[in-house]
């Protein structure tokens, strides 16, 4: 067991070190933060979606935006499209599971909003459908994925790809990227002004 634990920690550190050394990804993350700040300051909102563990990631970041991240401040408009079981089951039943996020983007999204999606493979059909609707509406998109060549890479305005093909490692990277994005937004809007 001890060897397994050490091995997992080492694999996680390897991915985090790659993220730390990826200046292009960090530049993209900074741009994502700026776009989110602009959307929120202009009265827009951030919509988030994912499946399974990625649904939990979407809910987590929405919670950080609406509640607080590192310090007390007014809430920010973040909506996880993964949480309303009545909507999810109605759309799933009436239109199919592939439309559970697209339908919500169409109903709730407005030009100038941001859609943040999570897909470790980059190929989740319901995520791709939501991205297509977002693009048609002028809703900017940020995709968090892994190092595979997923289809969402072609549809997203910004892609934050964790350099791994291991789902647990990708999700660990997504947690760091999501927290960093929250900190960028919170500090830009409510932090001390220079």
Strand order across the largest sheet: 2-1-3-4-5
Using the alpha-carbon principal axes, give the shape: globular
Q: What is the straight-line distance between the termini?
A: 50 Å
Query: What letter string, H or E per element, gives the SSE order?
Result: HHEHEHHEHEEH
CATH topology: Rossmann fold
Q: Could you tell me the mean pLDDT?
A: 97
Name the structural class.
alpha/beta
Rg calculated over all Cα atoms: 17 Å
Report strand %.
Answer: 5-15%
Helix content: 55-70%
CATH superfamily: Glucose-6-phosphate isomerase like protein, domain 1
> Under the CATH scheme, which architecture would be assigned?
3-Layer(aba) Sandwich
**Helix count?**
7
Could you tell me the number of beta strands? 5
Main pleated sheet: 5 strands, parallel
Our count of domains comes out at: 1
Overview of this structure, please?
- This protein is α/β, with parallel strands linked by helices and 194 residues long.
- The chain has one domain: Glucose-6-phosphate isomerase like protein, domain 1 (Rossmann fold, 3-Layer(aba) Sandwich), CATH 3.40.50.10490.
- Helices cover 55% and strands 11% of the residues.
- The protein contains seven helices and five strands.
- It has helices at residues 2-21, 23-41, 53-66, 85-94, 102-108, 125-137, 167-190; strands at 46-49, 78-80, 114-118, 140-145, 158-161.
- It has a five-stranded parallel β-sheet with strand order 2-1-3-4-5, sandwiched between helices.
- Helix 2 crosses helix 7 (167-190), helix 3 runs parallel beside helix 7 and helix 5 (102-108) runs parallel beside helix 6.
- The mean pLDDT is 97.
